[in-house]
Structure formats: C-alpha cells, structure tokens
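Input record (Table S2, row 367):
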Amino acid sequence: MSRVHPEGPGDQPDLGTRAASATRPVLPPRPDGDPGLVDRFGRRAVDLRVSLTERCNLRCTYCMPAEGLPFAPDAALMSADEIARLVGLGARELGIRKVRFTGGEPLLRKDLVDVVARSAAAHPDLELSLTTNAIGLASRAAALRAAGLHRLNVSLDTVDPDVFAEVTRRPFLDRVLEGIAAAADAGLGVKINAVLLRGVNDHLAADLLAWCLERGHELRFIEQMPLDPGHAWNATTMITAAQIRDLLAADYSLTPDEAPRNGAPAERYRVRSRATGADLGTVGVIASITESFCGDCTRTRLTADGHVRSCLFSDDETDLLGALRAGADDQAVLDRWRRAMWAKPRDHGDDTDGLVHPTRGMSAIGG
Ligand code: SAM
Ligand code: SF4
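Output record (iron/sulfur cluster complex):
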C-alpha cells in the first residue's frame, strides 16, 4: 500500500517507480542550486543505507517467515561496481556522509570486502558501517577493517542460547558471539541491536544490557515494527519504548543523555547501577513506532536491486539500477534520486493505528 502525496499528481516523466508514480508531486527548481537530497518538508538525507542482499541465514520471527522468502536472483542485484558508482555519486554530488551496508545478511555477499573497499575508494571522507547478524564475521572482520569499514551494528536479541534459537529459528549463538569478539579485536566499533518480543526475550532485557556493558558495546533496543511479511506484528502486544525502560528499571537507573541526537534514531541514556550507583555506560532506545522521529529523518535507502526508497514504510520506489544498466549518465541518475527524495512522505503515521504495513519486508528493503 502506498501513500498519496498531499500536493496531488505531478507531471514529471516516468521515473520507473514501483508504486505511486501517478501521485508524485512536481519537483520544484532546486533552491539556491542546492545539490543535496532535500524533501518537501525541509529534511536533508546524509545517511545512505545500502542493502546488499535479500538472503539471510537466520529466520528471526519478527523479520522473516520460517520458510524464507522468494529472493531476487543474483543478476538482479547491484554489483560492487554499481554500488560504488551510486555511493560515489551520493557522496560527491548529493551530500551523503555516511553509508551503512545492510540486508538481508550482508556477510552472505562473497564480495563484501570488495564492496566496502570500492565504496571507500569512491570518496575518502565517507563513514562506512555494516549491520549484520555476525555469522561468518570472525574470518572476515580484519579484512573488512582493512578495506575501510569503520564500525558495525550486530543484531543480538539475547545471549541465552535457547532463547536465541527460538527468536532466530537457528542454534547459532556461538557463531554470533565469535563474530562480535573478532570484530572488537579487529578494532571495529561494535554496537548491538536488539528487538524485544513479549513472552520470548523481554524478561532477559536487563541481562543483555549487562552483557553489553561489560564488554563496552552500546546496546540499542529497537521497537518491533510492522515490517515482517508474515504480519506477526501487533500494536497491542509490541513492547514499547516506555516498557523497555521499565524492564531495565529494577537493575538500572537511566538518565537521558543531553548530547544532541543529530538525526540519530536512538534516544540515548546514561546507565547507572541501582546496586552500586556506578556509571556503567549508555543504552539506546529506538522508538520508531511510539516516539517516532520522522521529522528529523536523515536517511535515504537503496534496495539490493537498486531502487531508491525514501522511507521504510512507503512502497514508493524509484529504479536507479535499471537506469544505470540502460546507460543513464550521472545527471540522469542524480535527477531520479533527487526526485525520489523530494517525494519522501512526511511520516509513517504517528499513532499505531495509522501505520502502513509495506509490501516488502525489512530483509528485502534493508534494515
Ligand atoms: N541481517 C542483518 C541483521 O540482522 O543485523 C541486517 C539486516 S536486519 C533487517 C537489520 C535490522 O533490522 C536488525 O537489527 C533487525 O533486528 C532489525 N529488524 C528486522 N525486522 C524488524 C522489525 N520487524 N522490527 C524492528 N526491527 C527489525
Ligand atoms: Fe536475517 Fe537480519 Fe532479518 Fe534476522 S533480522 S532474519 S538476521 S535479515
């Protein structure tokens, strides 16, 4: 389901969109020759998420059905060269400052080190990061660091092996922990992402925080979003940011971090032990649903098959890879990207009833 943009139909040429092309607003002249990615609501995208594959070796219940999903064939995915060209254009011409590779599981790309190296070479100032489940990271962490990767976010919803197997439908906790340790040894900054599921791992939230604090990895709890193709998400049973803070309250006192967020999705808190009063570090809570931060969004996304997606929750997509393969020059590609950004929706609905469940799931869009 896609949204109707408030300005009504536009008269721009066909942009190869998957949805809502008939309702796109007209792109106005660029203000002051601003070359960046700006939208109708004054937001500017400087963070690019690039999905490298739709495939995954886990089956997290909030993300993928047990039987998996129909994955796009490899030939339909962006190559390392195509990714580097788009990343380079984004950085040189559109003001992109950070690139995060994601998926599906990006470590399933055999050419991941090459993708990182070529993207690093495309622009010297880019900050490059990876979101991964860390399976197989142990053997590649050093090479990824050498290729130019700066940091990574590892998804880890629990450190209890049985609960891990229940959440991911795979008994691979040891391999994840091995990957995290190798990444830290390689000098890569590691943050941990966790989704809490009621009655499954919510009772272990404080244990997971303790594990992360002991190792110096910032933990960020992410509210579960309706981005699973199985439609398991439920507004009444999802664990909210307020409930996440409550789950930690018996062991820890949380004080909001005063540092500006600068478009970062996580609200950060300083964590103190209730038992000793010691300052133990920080924790983040990403309240995508109940305390939405759409007004400060700085993101633009490329799906693994090379479509720009300006919002996780909007099915509106613009095909850049098709344009590249049809021989489009840089200006034509940049124009498509800017138009896609201009059409970015204001938000994804600021109450849980108004949320749209997009057609493509998180693993296909790139989380
Ligand atoms: N496979 C990699 C991983 O798990 O880190 C990268 C892709 S995954 C889609 C990226 C992030 O999206 C993960 O942190 C995962 O927990 C999160 N995610 C997936 N489905 C979600 C959902 N329905 N709600 C909230 N977060 C979700
Ligand atoms: Fe795979 Fe990541 Fe989705 Fe889990 S959250 S199924 S690891 S893509």
